[in-house]
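Q: My collaborator sent me two sequences in one message, no labels, and asked for predicted structures for both. Can we handle them in order? The first one she listed is below.
A: Yes, handling them in the order given. First sequence, followed by its structure tokens:
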Amino acid sequence: MAELPQVHEGGSAASRPDMNAFLSLGFRPLYIAGCGWALISLFIWIFAPQWIGQPLGGLAWHAHEMLWGFIATIAVAFLLTASATWTGFNPLKGAGLAGIVVLWLIARIGYLVGGEIATHIACASEIAFFVISAACLMRVMVKGKSRRNYGVPLLVLGLGAANALYLRAALDGDYVLLMRRFDLGMICMAVIALLIARRVIPFFSMRMVPGLALPMQVRSGQIQLAIGVIAIALGLAGLALPMAAALAAVGLVSLWQVARWKPLAVLHKPMLWILYLGYAAMGLGLIFAAWHTSGLATGVLARAAVHVHIIGMGGFAVLIIGMVTRTALGHLGRPLALDNSMLVSYYLMIAAVVLRLGALWPSSDSLWLLRAAALSWIACMALYLWRFVPMLIRPRPASPG
């Protein structure tokens, strides 16, 4: 797999912000938007929940904004960027890219403000965000004859469809159906994340560790993808036990892949082990999800919040903080090295995961642990934005010589 595309981003004065550079590839505005909203929305959820309007209020708002407002946004940002490498064509830039960012922003404001009109405008804007992104991805896949990636736009479209189903259940006030559709959206996102990560982790590792040779595991990846899609279909059909078996299989394949990637060889490279850790946590979370779906879990482990936070925070968020640093540095022509603030952001995210999972066990410390987890998360995202926004809004530095 080639490195992220070295697209000309306009302007030679890299010291000044440049709108052409900022809107040259999807990762630039959408990394800022997604990580910025991860910080803001969690602050609101934990410390100012009274600001959240109805009908998408309370837990329904928090779950939606974490999965579709943050995690899915970063995934779309990465795919809009990486697809330029896979196909040789940039799927979205300039005014078109600005347009989907505006749609994304309208959705965030509409859900927060609440009310019937604002919520329906937000729903329409968010559906348009996913549909346009999927259409642009498919256009360049076809144009570039990248047949092996034809499924990627369909998965993005599936993520948008799961979002629409979730919103419909929220507007209908059906909490049980809402949680089922959230799980489907999370599984759809997991399939996309596993697909992306199993391509980039071996590639990044072999580039950063001299002499390291890792198998790409194409066949196991194809099997994993197929079983993941089957799990989604079984969920839609309401077949809990077969769905649980499929989820367990996907999780086990994930853990097997991590073991095959020689994790001990990357322990001295934080930019790599953070990706390994996130991938392994996602596999473990899918196994817990299977346990929950089967109805066999008991006690605290029977709570959906356990597998949701293992996958959502331990898997998605840990992978994201690793990906948004590694891919931004690589594409922006910066040295692939972490400074202290980047490394601290990794540890803050890991601390947030541990504290949040600890808060799930009923005790007198649960509220304190929850708030500490939130503060660790907020500090992680703030550090990322402080370090990377100045780079993301400027052109690539000119190559020496």
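Q: And the one she listed second?
A: Here it is, processed independently of the first:
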Amino acid sequence: MKKRILLTLLVVILLAAGYFLNLLLPVATGYAAKNLASGIFLSGRSQEALEAEDLNFSVIAYTNNTVDFENREVVSRLLWCKSKAIYVDGYGCTLVEDFSEEEIKNRSYKALEPLPARPDTLPWPIGDLMPDSLPEGLKPDRMNQVVEQAMSDSLPFKGSFAVMVVYKGQVVAEAYRDDFSANTRFLSWSMAKSMTNTLVGLRVKDGALAIHQPLSVEAWQADGRKAITLNNLLQMNSGLAWNEGYGGLSDVTVMLHKVGDMGLYAQEKAYEFPADSVWEYSSGSTNLVCREFRKSFSHEEDYFAFPRQQLFNPLGMTSAVFEVDASGTFVGSSYVYATMRDYARFGLLYLNDGKWLGQQLLPEGWGDYTTEVAKGSGGRYGSSFWLNQSGEFPDAPRDLFLCRGHDGQFICMIPSKELVVIRTGYSKKGEFDLNQLLKGVLESLE
């Protein structure tokens, strides 16, 4: 009798383990395939370097990855599971999920042309031609010391890929790890959410979107979701159920690595709280914003070209690539690749309240809207930007606001100091102290 019970228990355990693995393995292979493909074909990194650093954790470290350089594809395998990522020219790398390769590759993508002039022939910030002198009010030796410390790869500054400081509109510090350069595209992770905010702002200026109007999602009309607005989604207080945990199976890991239409996945989430009442950080909310953004276009070609034509080219962000999911929707939660200088240009746009070289690119007042505290956030969040109204960064002014991404990606804007600080890297929680970096940079100003 005991043997039968033990055998039954063993069978149950094995079945449960198999069921769990069947859920987990596609997340692991999807993560490996997508990040390896983008790292190679957008950032120009080697397979060996990415596997040794960016993919060397949890079960993802055990994936077997095959790179097809001719067709620009990556296949990742683990046990019985396999994921594939393919490259689409101008739109980065996409996991083949829920849609066929033919559907993904044959969408009405518009050929994207960069600015006609070479960036190094034009003065900063529209180009990369830097002035000969530094701005007044700077202590260069102290700034160099601070940046060198931030690149030291020792606690509390582990894992930096690059650091850049722009003061009074000029680049005053720029440093890269030996295997990177000014031409390297770095992954934004959730800094992309702030760029999604910007795309929405541009469509608001065009009169194509209204952020305070309830969304006309048919599936929502029978319950409280019918009251949700774009503003609620941008401010992360829509009331939709969401789990943003990155440690294993969660809404965000499933969405990014197993789902073809990420915005639809978020749209189908249950309604937990009345809109505009409870703040809950959600990458799903941002990808739902992207789905609604796409619906505001009559022609797909115009939608695909919009980030390049209306945001990146006007700012001189010639390196920037906004990746799409398998359905063709921009992954505004996570997937922009750009150089440090192009991230700096984006920071300058917001430092200057949506103006670029004297022209009002974003709607009047969009900067104020962006930094308005979202209800329920305790002063930590605005509209797809993080804030310092809570004093989270005690050694920085309260007017600090920032784009913030997984594993330590930051674009920090401090209008009162005319300052933009950018940092990219690969740092686990507690390994990089942004407050200390900002403190040091601020001490470098007279």
